[in-house]
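SUBJECT: protein chain
CONTENTS: sequence, structure tokens:
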Amino acid sequence: MRFAERMDLLKTESAFVVLAKAKELERQGRDIIHLEIGDTDFDTPSNIVEEAYAQLKSGQTHYCPSAGVFELREACCEFFRRMGRGAYTPEEIVVGPGGKPFLYYTIMAFAGPGDEVIYPDPGFPVYESVALYAGAKPVPLPILEENDFRFTADDLRSRVTDRTRLLILNYPHNPTGGTLTRADLEMVAEIAIENDIVVLSDEVYAHMLFEGEHISLGTLPGMRERTIMLETFSKTYAMTGWRLGFVAAPAEIADKLTQLITNSVSCVPPFIQMAGAKAILDDQSESEAMMADFKRRRDLFISGLNEIEGISCLSPGGAFYAFPNVSEVPMGTEEFSDYLLDEMGVATLPGSAFGVHANQHLRMCFANSVENLEKALDRIGSAVAKLGK
């Protein structure tokens, strides 16, 4: 069978590969602690589930506008306004099936053969994969531990050329948990404006910021007209399986992204969208409680990792990932990740799954119960002790 050559350019997302392996081990009777997938152990708040059920019963099961139902797009404007992240109109909001499709849509809209896309490395693997698929050149921007998992102005400037069409930011950052300061964002804005670069600002972990204030890039002078701000319901409202995300962008860009939705998935089911509107407009206490609990889990887990000889871990400023340095463990990171799963029943991801600048780290998602996190720490500590003998 002959496939198009561009299929060879697509890469996989290792989290789902490891998840499948871990689930198979569970099926065989193994006790597995899941730290590999960026999902939470919380269920979707009941008011959102009940709203979806009510909308299903009322007949919200037909086609709707590709950009999204007006009620949700209006609610998304309120979402950004409430958080001080910019004033938008419903015409500048586009709703899609999760956040990941907007990475695809945006790269396809702005980059093609001969163009360049700057993206964070380590970073969400889809950035590089889709840039390659579009025929563009992916240009990794190093996010290094010695810089507190941030990049420098020199790092960014040295990677901008006259072929740069898109810069992808992600903060708080997956997989490191690093974030950006106002000074960092002002530097990005200056470079983007000077070089006429569009920025895809992936801010899906904005509500999971443990210290400081989240500042959206599009609120800086001169950046609203060149920023695509990405958000989802997955993390904020524990709705990963619902597949609901949205972007805020200038109307000209929003129209292009809507065209891509029309030509791919048509629309997101309206009963899901109406549940999303309920999530935004209703009481936020459950969501806020989840975010507070993630902070408690972070503190416990990072402290525990740093007590294991041979492992060191910076405390993440946001998101729900630990990114420990395991370079002193007498085993390569990929082998160590396999060992933890196969021998200890702890599913993690090697840093190499996220790029070329993270081969001394593992990613561990601490969106798990305290009981499981403590068990994971015991097992990881035992593994390191055995390997050190």
